[in-house]
Specification:
- The structure holds two protein chains of two kinds.
- By secondary structure, chain A is an all-alpha fold.
- Chain A starts with a helix and ends with a helix.
- The longest helix of chain A has 24 residues.
- Chain A has one domain.
- Chain A contains four helices and no strands.
- Chain B is mostly beta strands.
- Chain B has one domain.
- Helix content of chain B is 9%, strand content 55%.
- Chain B is built from three helices and 15 strands.
- In chain B, strands 8-7-6-5-4-3-2-1-15-14-13-12-11-10-9 form a 15-stranded mixed β-sheet.
- Chain B is globular, with a radius of gyration of 17 Å.
- The mean pLDDT of chain B is 85.
- The chains are: A mainly alpha, B mainly beta.
Chain lengths: 106, 253
Amino acid sequence: MRKVLIVLAFIFAVFGIVFAILPMGTIGVLPAGLSLLFALIAFIKSPVGHKNVPKWLLIISALILVVIIGRSFVPDEVVEDTEFEQKKIESKQEDLKELEELEGLE
Amino acid sequence: MRTIFFIIALTFATIGFSQNRAVKSGEKFVYAASYNMSGLMTQIAQVTMETETVKTAKNTLLHLSCEAATYSKWDSFFKIRDVYEAYVNPNTLRPSLYKRDILEGKYTKKEKYIFKNEGRTIESTMTKKNMAPTKKTFNVGDSTADAVSTIYQLRNVDFSKFKVGQTKTFTVIFDEKEMTASAKYMGRETISAGNLGKKECYKISIAAKTQALKGNDKNIIWLTADAAKVPAKISFSIPVGTGQLTLTNASGL
C-alpha cells in the first residue's frame, strides 16, 4: 500500500511539473494536489525511519503547487511585437493604394 | 483561431446593409479568449476589435479590424497573430475591401476580397505558405458581406423589437464560400462586461450549416442592451471543444 502511494505521488508529481512548465494555467493544481495527497498519506503510513522518500515527495509536490498558484496571479499579457506592428503599417499603406485604384475604376 | 473568428463572424452577421447607428470610429474592444481544458477555462489569447476613419482621395471609409494574439506565455508553444480587417462605407457598412492575414504556429494564410460591381462581384486573392497566390472572381448576393463587416453589422439590428425565439437569417462569405446562418433571439440576461460593469444584454444564439459549429444553442453572443450594442461575451462550441471571449475593456464608445 505504502509503495503504491509513493508511486502514485511520484507519477502525479511528474505531471504537475510538466503542467507547471507548460502555460496550462491552474490545471496543474489537479496532479500536484493529488501528488501532495498521496505523498501525505504515504508519509503518515510509513514507519519511523522510512519517511524520507514520502517526505521529499511531499516537499516537491508542495513546491509545484506554490509555483502553479503563484503563476496564476501573474497577469496575462501580449508581448509587444514590432515586426507584427510594422507589417500592419505596411499593409494599411497597401490597402489605401488598393482602395484608390478601386475608386479610379468607379 | 480561424474557427473561433468564423463563429464570431456568424454571431454578428445580419441581413442587408441597414443604416449604421451603432458603430463609431475610434472604438476599441479588448477580449480575453479562453479555451476549456479539462473543465477549466484557460486564457490563451487577446482579441482586439477596433474601428478607425480612413480617408482616400475620394472617400472617407471606416476601417474595421479584429486581431487575435496569443499571450506571451503561449508564444513559444503556439504563436497566433491573426488580423481580419475590412474597409467599409461608414453609413451602410457595405465593404469595399476585406483582408485576412493569419499566422497560427507554422500555418500562414492571406486572403483578400475586393468588392466590385456594388458588392455583387468579388475578386479574391488567396496566398498560402510556400504557394503562389491564387486569384478568383465570383458573384455573390446583394446582401452578402465579408466576415468582418458582418461582425459589425449585427450591432445595428434592433433586438428590442424581437420576440424570444425570433430568428434572422443572413449570408456571409468566408473562405470563398457563401453560407447562410441564423441568429435566434433568446431574451435578456445581465452579465459582467469588463470595465462597463454589469450590463443587461441581448442573448443571441447562432446556428449555421457548417462543420465549425456544434450543438444547439451552444454558440451564444451577449450584446449590451443599449444603443452601442457592445459584444460583452461570446461562448462557442466547436468540434474540438468549447471556449469563450469575455470583454475586458471597451473604449471610444
